[in-house]
Amino acid sequence: MTVSAPRRSSVQRRSSQRHSGRRRPSTRRSVLFIGTTLLAAVAGIAFFAPLWWSFVNSLRPGSETFRYLNPLQWQTFFTLTPTLDNYTALLDTDLSRAILNSLIVSVVTVLAGLAVCATAAFGLSAFRFRGQGLLFSVVILTFLIPFDAIAIPLSDMFRDWNLQNTFVGLILPGIGNGMAIFLLRTFFLAIPEELVEAARLDGLGWWGVFTRIYLPLSRPALIGAGLMLFLFQWQAYVWPLLMGTDREHILGPVALSNLQGQFQVDYGVLFAASMVLVLIPLIIILSFQRYFIQSVTTSGMK
């Protein structure tokens, strides 16, 4: 009995050390999980707070917009007397016509842009030709240069072509998007070459390979590229300001800026218009969020 007692104590020490060694990594994981969760929550609140403040101010008169800012209080982010007067006042402005124009321009841009960008991405991924790397570098360079930097000289060209105050002039610059081509080409490269070779051996032409193999397998990438094209066109301001100067071709961001008077601004109406312009792309993004994330995470994976 006197010999077995020390043996038992040593065994208990070893087992306790093993259990403590197991507890430390689990404790570290718990602390790391809690820390990252709190950090994500703080970041989410920081991004959501301005949007919520704008929404609350769209439900109160414009004279009360900055009433509760200094100092901050609970009325800053909440109101007990919400009203829809600011939204009904939008019916007397050009915003409804501008939103319809923005939807037309954005939808046509997505359809035509996907046709152009997907075809270009297919050519850059399925074929091998001299100067392919240089051509792809030019495509990458196009979305590294801000569009606003070339908007003014490009608008002069469009005026010479009599495309000002036309939907064609508003749509054309958004069709060829270098970022969409880059995303689609990266996704196309992940398609197995054996599948394409088998289709070619069965007598399928390149157009059939593109329409029957590449496009059906690349639905997430097409949706992601379509969202890029839509957002690029929906939030554009400088180009619609230069090309859509009449009421028939005015777009949403330009109509929003026109709500600001020279000497007086109704911030309630302004915030209501901002929320309407934000709500439409927000609904679209949330509806296709799963496909967009899938297109980004699976691009370039074999």
From TrEMBL:
Q: Where is the composition biased (Basic residues)?
A: 15-27
Transmembrane residues, as ranges?
31-53, 98-122, 134-155, 167-191, 221-239, 267-293
Q: Which residues form the ABC transmembrane type-1 domain?
A: 99-288
Please list where the region (Disordered) is annotated: 1-27
User: What Gene3D superfamilies does the annotation carry?
Assistant: MetI-like
Alphabetically sorted, this entry's keywords are: Cell membrane, Membrane, Transmembrane, Transmembrane helix, Transport
Q: Which GO terms describe its biological process?
A: transmembrane transport
Membrane topology category: Multi-pass membrane protein
- Spans of biased composition, class Low complexity? 1-14
Where is it chiefly localized? membrane
Entry GO terms, CC = plasma membrane
SUPFAM superfamilies for this protein: MetI-like (SSF161098)
From what superkingdom does this record's organism come?
A: Bacteria
Please report which protein family the annotation says this sequence is part of.
Answer: Belongs to the binding-protein-dependent transport system permease family.
Q: What is this protein called?
A: Carbohydrate ABC transporter permease
